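fwd from M.: "can u put these together and see what the complex looks like"

so here's what she sent:
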Amino acid sequence: MNTPAEASHNHPHPSEHDHKKCVSEALDTAEHLCVVRGVQLTPIRHQVLELIWDSHKAVKAYELLDRIKPLKDGAKPATIYRALDFLIEQGLIHRVESLNAFVGCSSSGHQHEQLLLICKHCNEVEERPATEVMQALSQELEQAGFVVHSKAIEVRGICVKCAALYDDQD
Amino acid sequence: MNTPAEASHNHPHPSEHDHKKCVSEALDTAEHLCVVRGVQLTPIRHQVLELIWDSHKAVKAYELLDRIKPLKDGAKPATIYRALDFLIEQGLIHRVESLNAFVGCSSSGHQHEQLLLICKHCNEVEERPATEVMQALSQELEQAGFVVHSKAIEVRGICVKCAALYDDQD
DNA sequence: TTACCGAGCGTTATAATATAACATCCGATT
DNA sequence: AATCGGATGTTATATTATAACGCTCGGTAA
């Protein structure tokens, strides 16, 4: 398959994983979930999701716009933002609040709310279920009597792989 | 003292607390910390901090700009953003990432990183130390080998006071 | 004193992010 | 055939944020 995702994918920690698998799993899951839910993963939405999954980096909306223009001539901001809205609603991507950017969600089906570890060096975002944290948070929120709509738990810093590089080289 | 803060303050849950005390404590703490740290809480910075403390609501940068213009003729975006940068650096305010907005920090001296509970109804932001959550998070981050620069832990929903109003009235 | 330096601020311009509003298309239903 | 709703096209604009450059002023080194 000559997808743009495969063509332009650029992973800073290459030995670590088979990214094609990430992408195909994410897309398969997305397609399946949309069928089950009776919502449409239209070509545009699919393309945007694929572009987001090009890497594990957080991507800006206008970056996506630039990258979808060759595929979708005449794409405008609304094209992207509508697709992003849909993908977020369906839990297929995360909005990274502290970056105004977007990243694929690996656990779309089950557990969408996760701890996001955002590396300032490689710009990758790691999702972690962080069950202990989530449990403590639920308790805290219950104590506070707060009715939750959504959560954003984001930590910025240097990921373990980049930290290792720093130790070795910088 | 005929401060703008007192003049325009508007609290949706009025019986709950003495807001003048919040403001004066926040400003006193800020002044003290800046002296100790050898940094300047200039008139502009002080005014912006005061405007932010007008309420416990998250405030947008351009709202602050509009509100500082009468006091500081010719104020421009940079005026506000520079002050905000300073106040954030000094831990005197929080940037609410999921709103692109700002709110005073009650615990400037000691424990800046807190859980923020953001009410969609009254728009107030409650800070909570949430020590159990923070502890679990620290553990998680240590396990992940992630070097932390900053954290944003934000929950959006309905605060306990507004939830009570909903139960009674809506 | 004079020269310099850096922090803070004024000012202009523009970049980057996001939404509103209305038109059109197209497939499903009546 | 009529119509209805979801998705998309299209134009315009709102909102958020930064860049870049110059001035002032107070401290300090020559």
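replying to her w this: The interface with chain B takes residues 97-98, 100, 115, 117, 120, 126, 128, 130, 132-133, 135-137, 139-141, 144-160, 163 of chain A (CB under 8 Å).
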